[in-house]
């Protein structure tokens, strides 16, 4: 039985026989652009962006199918060749036999080690891979040990296949782009500089140099090279069975030679070694990117030293550990370690975007609008000092019609006009910025952030994606202008109000907000005419209530009675007599959108805060009453829950149908979270979800029941196999948000059940087959899918921190409201969390001396640095302490 074994309290783990799993991969990267993925046999890729791949790009299916992997060969005199990564054809044939070599991986944050022992060859290998900070390279150290009782003569060869071009060229001009390669051997390795780049940007002069360099532990350089793939593998050979290695042929290429127009490989031959019993020999390899050959010459004299390698490895480990400011201590040490990896996932997504790991082969890199805001949720817990600037810059992506840019630039606050003129609006996008901003303000107390000013995004799309501004041109730039051609700047509060007010009026015939191109569930993408999202209508309602609380706080703290707002926005206010009439709402929205189709007047009005609060509360209450009167359903079996959607025929999606009961989780999450559901209704929802959606075998709560229909009037998800991705899988993101909503409403045992089921499934390697962390979803067979790059990690961190441990911000003060179950305390009756709050490091430790469960205990005493602290009945610690 394979299982993850944690070695310490910072997530370090080991796993035996990892190569018996075909889809495992591990991320190693840095913050200057190098992004790599590794399998237990060192397959995977290395890249800096979509157009700069050093190693050939891989999807999940390539992990077991692709032979073009990192390798290091040892030819043993009198025997045969041995791959230290285990990918020779001979080794592969023994994976399922009793002669299988002993293997084990040992992983810590951004560091991958694999240990392989071959009794047949009398050799043991240890390979360490990591990406050092500040360098555009991946480092690899190979250590070979003679475990036999006799001397062994070996011929060592590093073999790193070099791709050196855009991911698009895997199929598009694969051979033609190899003709661009200019290959050169230097003392320490093989360098490739393509003459041109062939990709969607056109044919351009290439400025990037790729290369592989290496030395042995004595700083000795390779003695010869085989830089051309077809010569390295030989006719009839392959990367798993290369002729030059299997026959131990001499490499005839020396330093200083040049070649043109071939597929290339960094095949570096070292001098023969005679190894005595128990003797070890190490080789250090670097492969990466530079601007010239000189860059690799310099790296040879700096990085390729054993002392430097070890120092860089130590520094890299420490660097990433310092990035994770959250530490947990409960009665379940495995949970504590698992959460350490969950903590790291939002950092990984900031680096990799949503497309640069093997399962994320559906895009070309970058992050989406939601990702910008949800990743900040975790950063607020781990590295809050950076968040203010990020939030302020992110608001520059909001359009004045309440929609937003969908192409995110590489730089902070950079948004790009859609060059393909694709008109698509996700109706949920306007809700996320406020959720993150509200958390930031409560954590920091920075209420004046709402009064900061920012520009609006401008491009061809107008009227929330239904029209075009034919007066706009890309030369004008991506900033909304006034009629005097000045860039208009509005407050962050104004941006938030624009997003929520436009959404309020953008309704369908059933008077819920239109689904548009999709909501959070991107696969609900085929109901843009008549589809409606009751689920996110509920979330916008909850946001409106919380916006009112912030407005009251601004008024009281700043002693002001009015807020500034663009004149055009007034048409969206104070219209409560038409809320029951969908067409009247749509007319108001169209009037507003046409007023800002190309530019705006640039004049502002002073809006009375009390009147604004009254108006927003009326809108929120109207939504709440509407959903409760129109969308609460009870089926023939007596279960009750909320209908979450309308399809493109304008019909309810959930309830009793000929094919069976139809229920979706999303509509339950946001009605609970936004306080639309009463306590009694929450209990009913839990019963229904437990009956129709809960499946312990696949990790807990499915996203929906089986509709048994290719529902083309709702979304592509129904074309997916049931139990996969958005169609009925346990989709971690919404599952965790369900837990969060339950915790918020005081349904703690129910919320814990949600998290515990998913956690225990993920950590059960025999079923989930993933390294520690939370995947995007669980497949119908129980495998974790789309690992690491998922917004569910941010929501899980937020839930564990603010709900489970109950460490919350209240306008900069720290509020303690623990919702820990008795079973979560350790043997000393303690549970703790370490975090950064208000730029200070805290360890919050709860001591449950009387063994009370949640609902039975309350905080009796608070000690700060061993001194008693007087606190109010809200368990709040003043930010000035």
Automatic annotation (TrEMBL):
Keywords: Glycosyltransferase, Transferase. Residues 52-301 form the Glycosyl hydrolase 94 supersandwich domain. Gene3D superfamilies: 1.50.10.10, Glycoside hydrolase, family 65, N-terminal domain. Signal peptide: none annotated. GO terms for biological process: carbohydrate metabolic process. Pfam families: GH94_b-supersand, Glyco_hydro_94. GO terms for molecular function: carbohydrate binding; glycosyltransferase activity. Residues 614-804 form the Glycosyl hydrolase 94 catalytic domain. This is Cellulase. It comes from Clostridium sartagoforme AAU1.
């Amino acid at each position: 039985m394979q299982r993850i074994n944690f070695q310490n309290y910072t997530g370090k783990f080991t796993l035996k026989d990892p190569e018996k799993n075909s889809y495992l991969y591990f991320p190693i990267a840095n913050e200057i652009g190098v992004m790599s993925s590794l399998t237990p046999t060192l397959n995977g890729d290395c890249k800096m962006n979509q157009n700069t791949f050093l190693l050939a790009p891989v999807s999940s299916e390539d992990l077991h199918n692709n032979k073009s992997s990192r390798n290091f060969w040892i030819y043993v005199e009198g025997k045969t060749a041995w791959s230290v990564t285990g990918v020779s054809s001979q080794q592969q044939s023994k994976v399922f036999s009793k002669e299988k070599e002993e293997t084990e991986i040992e992983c810590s944050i951004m560091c991958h080690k694999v240990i392989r022992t071959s009794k047949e060859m009398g050799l043991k290998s240890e390979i360490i891979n990591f990406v050092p900070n500040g360098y555009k390279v991946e480092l690899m150290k190979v250590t070979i040990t003679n475990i036999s009782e006799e001397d062994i003569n070996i011929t060592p060869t590093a073999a790193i296949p070099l791709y050196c071009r855009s991911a698009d060229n895997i199929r598009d001009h694969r051979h033609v782009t190899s003709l661009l390669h200019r290959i050169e051997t230097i003392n320490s390795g093989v360098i490739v500089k393509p003459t041109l780049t062939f990709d969607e940007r056109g044919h351009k002069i290439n400025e990037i140099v790729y290369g592989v360099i290496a030395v042995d532990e004595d700083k000795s350089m390779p003695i010869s090279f085989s830089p051309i793939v077809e010569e390295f593998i030989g006719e009839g050979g392959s990367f798993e069975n290369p002729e030059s290695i299997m026959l131990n042929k001499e490499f005839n290429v020396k330093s200083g030679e040049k070649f043109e127009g071939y597929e290339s490989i960094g095949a570096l031959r070292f001098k023969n070694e005679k190894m005595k019993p128990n003797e070890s020999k190490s080789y250090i390899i670097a492969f990466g990117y530079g601007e010239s050959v000189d860059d690799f010459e310099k790296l040879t004299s700096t990085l390729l030293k054993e002392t430097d390698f070890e120092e860089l490895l130590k520094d890299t480990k420490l660097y990433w550990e310092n990035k994770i400011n959250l530490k947990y201590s409960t009665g379940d040490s495995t949970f504590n370690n698992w959460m350490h990896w969950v903590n790291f996932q939002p950092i990984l997504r900031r680096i990799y975007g949503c497309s640069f790991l093997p399962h994320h082969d559906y895009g070309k890199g970058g992050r989406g609008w939601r990702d910008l805001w949800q990743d900040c949720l975790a950063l607020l817990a781990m590295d809050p000092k950076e968040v203010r600037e990020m939030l302020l810059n992110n608001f520059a992506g909001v359009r004045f019609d309440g929609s937003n840019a969908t192409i995110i630039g590489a730089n902070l606050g950079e948004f790009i006009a859609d060059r393909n003129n694709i008109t698509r609006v996700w109706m949920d996008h306007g809700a996320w910025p406020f959720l993150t901003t509200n958390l930031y303000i409560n954590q920091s107390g920075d209420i004046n952030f709402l009064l900061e000013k920012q520009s609006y995004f401008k491009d061809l799309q107008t009227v929330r994606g239904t029209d075009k501004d034919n007066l706009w041109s890309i030369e004008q730039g991506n900033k909304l202008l006034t009629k005097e051609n000045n860039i208009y700047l509005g407050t962050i509060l104004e941006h938030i109000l624009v997003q929520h007010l436009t959404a309020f009026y953008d309704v369908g015939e059933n008077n819920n907000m239109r689904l548009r191109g999709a909501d959070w569930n991107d696969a609900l993408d085929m109901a843009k005419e008549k589809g409606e999202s009751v689920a996110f209508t509920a979330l916008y309602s909850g946001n409106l209530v919380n916006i009112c609380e912030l407005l009251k706080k601004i008024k009281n703290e700043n002693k002001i009675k009015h807020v500034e707002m663009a004149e055009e926005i007034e048409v969206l206010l104070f219209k409560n007599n038409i809320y029951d009439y969908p067409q009247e709402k749509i007319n108001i929205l169209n009037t507003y959108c046409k007023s800002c189709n190309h530019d705006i007047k640039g004049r502002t009005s002073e809006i009375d805060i009390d009147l604004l609060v009254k108006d927003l509360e009326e809108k929120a209450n109207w939504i709440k009453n509407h959903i409760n009167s129109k969308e609460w359903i009870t089926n023939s079996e007596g279960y009750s829950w909320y209908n979450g959607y309308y399809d493109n025929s304008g019909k309810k999606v959930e309830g009793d149908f000929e094919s069976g009961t139809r229920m979706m989780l999303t509509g339950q999450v946001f009605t609970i979270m936004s306080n639309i559901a009463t306590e009694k209704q929450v209990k009913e929802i839990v019963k229904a979800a437990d009956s129709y959606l809960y499946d312990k075998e696949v990790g807990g709560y499915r996203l929906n029941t089986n509709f048994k229909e290719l529902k083309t009037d709702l979304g592509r998800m129904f074309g997916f196999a049931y139990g996969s991705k958005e169609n009925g899988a346990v989709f971690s993101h919404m599952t965790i948000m369900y837990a969060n909503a339950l915790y918020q409403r005081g349904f703690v045992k129910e919320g814990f059940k949600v998290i515990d089921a998913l956690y225990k499934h993920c950590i059960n390697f025999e079923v989930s087959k993933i390294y520690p962390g939370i995947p995007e979803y669980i497949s119908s067979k129980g495998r974790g899918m789309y690992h690491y790059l998922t917004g569910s990690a941010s929501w899980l961190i937020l839930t564990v921190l603010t709900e489970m441990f109950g460490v919350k911000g209240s306008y900069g003060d720290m509020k303690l409201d623990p919702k820990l179950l008795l079973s979560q305390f350790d043997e000393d009756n303690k549970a703790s969390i370490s975090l950064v709050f208000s730029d200070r490091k805290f360890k919050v430790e709860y001591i449950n001396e009387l063994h009370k469960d949640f609902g039975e205990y309350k905080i009796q005493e608070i000690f700060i640095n061993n001194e008693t602290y007087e606190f109010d009945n809200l368990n709040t610690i003043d930010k000035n302490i």
